[in-house]
Amino acid sequence: MANPESDIHAALMAQAETITGYSMLWPQKGGDQPAGEHIRISHVPNDNAPADLSSDVMERQGFLYLTLVSDLGQYEAVTKRKAGEIAAYFKRGKPLKMNGTTVKITGHNVRPGRQEGGRWETPIRISYWSMA
């Protein structure tokens, strides 16, 4: 059964599926970490707030984190460029729709990367908003 939270999640994941050139690690699907460069996905919704006191409509917002996981041995500028290209799949103002629920992308930014074990991780934060 569809509900706004699952529709928002599905709309964000459907847009993430349009990213080409990378293996993906999806939430709760599990699996081994790919040997090469890949993207790890995490959806972090914020608390919902009522649109007004007389309505069941809720203001829903949160973040989709896409983490570009790369091998060490290249300049950070290279991974930041790649992360920026990934973020561009989520253009500001772009409406995503699923089962009558519309999600609007409110922005994206590439966060500073860091070494994790023998890999370099560059987080990409996609922010969204919906009234549903």
Task: Please give a handful of descriptors for the protein shown.
single chain, 132 residues, alpha+beta, 8-stranded mixed β-sheet, 2 helices, 19% helix
Q: Topology of this protein?
A:
Layout: H1 4-16, E1 23-25, E2 38-45, E3 49-50, E4 58-71, H2 76-87, E5 95-98, E6 101-110, E7 114-116, E8 119-131
Parallel strand pairs: 1-2
Antiparallel strand pairs: 2-4, 3-4, 4-8, 5-6, 6-8, 7-8
Tally of helical runs: 2
**Which stretches of 5+ consecutive residues score pLDDT under 50?**
none
Shape: elongated
Question: What is the mean predicted local confidence, pLDDT?
Answer: 90
The total strand number stands at 8
Structural class: alpha+beta
Our measurement of the CA-to-CA distance between the termini, rounded to an integer number of angstroms, reads 15 Å
Rg over CA atoms: 16 Å
Largest sheet: 8 strands, mixed
Strand content: 35-45%
* N to C succession of SSEs: HEEEEHEEEE
Query: What is the percent of helical residues?
Result: 10-25%
